[in-house]
Amino acid sequence: MKVKVWIKRRCDEFNICEYVEIPLARAADIIDRIDPRNLYIIVEDIDPKTLEEFA
């Protein structure tokens, strides 16, 4: 299982946004300063058995 954390940095006048990927440990350090609307957690390569446990 691979976890990626993306944060929206800024959007231009055409609503095209820039995102940056940060390490999970860094996200944990600054979680109180991140607006939840700008935080994206992406889980890749998840084992189907693990997925059943999450559901």
Structural features, described:
The protein has about 55 residues and is of the alpha+beta class. Helices cover about 25% and strands about 40% of the residues. The chain contains two helices and three strands. A three-stranded antiparallel β-sheet has the order 2-1-3. About 0% of the residues are buried.
Number of domains: 1
Beta-strand residue fraction: 35-45%
> Helix and strand string, N-terminal first?
EEHEH
Largest sheet: 3 strands, antiparallel
Distance between the termini: 16 Å
Q: What is the tally of beta strands?
A: 3
> What is the helix content?
10-25%
The spatial strand order of the largest sheet comes to 2-1-3
Q: Write down the Rg.
A: 14 Å
List the uncertain runs: none
Task: Briefly note the structural class of the backbone.
Answer: alpha+beta
Q: What's the helix count?
A: 2
Mean pLDDT across residues: 89
Shape: extended
